[in-house]
Amino acid sequence: MQHSAVLNVMIKAAHRAGRGLKRDLGEVEHLQVSLKGPRNFVTAADRRAEETVREELAKARPDYGFLGEEGGARAGADKSHRFIVDPLDGTTNFLHGIPHFAVSIALERDGVVVAGIVYNPANDELFVAERGKGAYLNDKRIRVAARQRFADAVVACGLPHYGRGDLALARREIAAAQQAFAGLRRYGAATLDLAWIACGRLDAYWERDLSPWDLAAGSILVREAGGFVSDCDGKGDIFTKGEVVAGNDTMHRELLRLLKEAGSEAGKDAIREAAAP
Ligand code: IPD
Ligand code: CA
Ligand code: CA
């Protein structure tokens, strides 16, 4: 697979940061038994990973802007290009020694994501996509699942927890999803949820309260794999609204309908009735 020069730079940066995170994961597993736990160690690992990515990208593209979850936004002399980076997506998994996390790097050109990579160093799975060139997992072409029936679908979601997100709405959405799908999953790394949609492991995914670095790389993976990505109203404002619905054409459309119903007054009544003694 012939990648562009900038994608190869992004891949090199992700591999370098990934080597550090894989080493740190070993230490985290060891620290689980310490009373203080590994929280401070993981924060340092997160920051180290972002610094490694930023350094590697700046070597090759010093004038590009940079938006990272840990260090924030840094404008570049080149106002057209910006990297959007989540150096460690799935922090809570990482903190618990769960090998499901990723380095996510996207390239935005004039406000449009044109390349993205999501790399899980724990299992060495590298998802890449460039606009118009398809999506790949470890250099093999990937496409979204072809399943059309909800009853056959395995779907991923976020799980708002206390103090974050609309718990009542989430409960209605999840209740509706449980009645519709073959399986519901919550994996804890939004970038990998989108990458797994792109390679067909998952049939659909939705989540709210996300940041641009959670969404940027995964969105181009899904689109280049033939899938659809929108906000919860079916529009393109995923970054401004911080929400995503993704899947093949049918699954995406049907999931939008299910979420709309769960969010409606009828949805509230239906859950109230179901919960009534
Ligand atoms: C989190 C993960 C998680 C999602 C959270 C994100 P982080 O990213 O992607 O799956 O539900 O909303 O903040 O904090 O681990 O980089
Ligand atoms: Ca993160
Ligand atoms: Ca994240």
Structure description:
It is built from nine helices and 13 strands. It is globular and about 50 Å long. The N and C termini lie far apart (59 Å). The protein binds D-MYO-inositol-1-phosphate (IPD) and calcium ion (2 copies). The site of one calcium ion (CA) has 5 residues, from strand 3.
List keywords for this structure.
277 residues; alpha+beta; 8-stranded mixed sheet; 5-stranded mixed sheet; binds D-MYO-inositol-1-phosphate; binds calcium ion
Structure summary:
By secondary structure, the chain is α+β, with helices and mostly antiparallel strands. The chain has nine helices and 13 strands.
Q: Count the strands? A: 13
| Unreliable stretches | none
Strand percentage lies at 15-25%
Q: Helix and strand succession?
A: HHEEEHEEEEEEHEHEHEHEHH
Distance between the first and last residues' Cα: 59 Å
Main β-sheet: number of strands, strand sense, barrel status? 8 strands, mixed
Query: Average pLDDT, to the nearest integer?
Result: 94
Using the alpha-carbon principal axes, give the shape.
globular
Structural class of the secondary elements?
A: alpha+beta
List the helices and strands and how they pair.
Layout: H1 5-31, H2 39-60, E1 64-68, E2 72-74, E3 78-89, H3 91-95, E4 102-109, E5 112-120, E6 125-130, E7 135-137, E8 140-142, E9 154-157, H4 167-178, E10 183-185, H5 190-198, E11 204-207, H6 212-224, E12 228-230, H7 238-241, E13 244-247, H8 249-263, H9 265-275
Parallel strand pairs: 1-3, 9-10, 9-11
Antiparallel strand pairs: 1-2, 3-4, 4-5, 5-6, 6-7, 7-8, 11-13, 12-13
Helix pairs in contact: 1-2, 4-8, 5-6
The structure holds D-MYO-inositol-1-phosphate and calcium ion (2 copies).
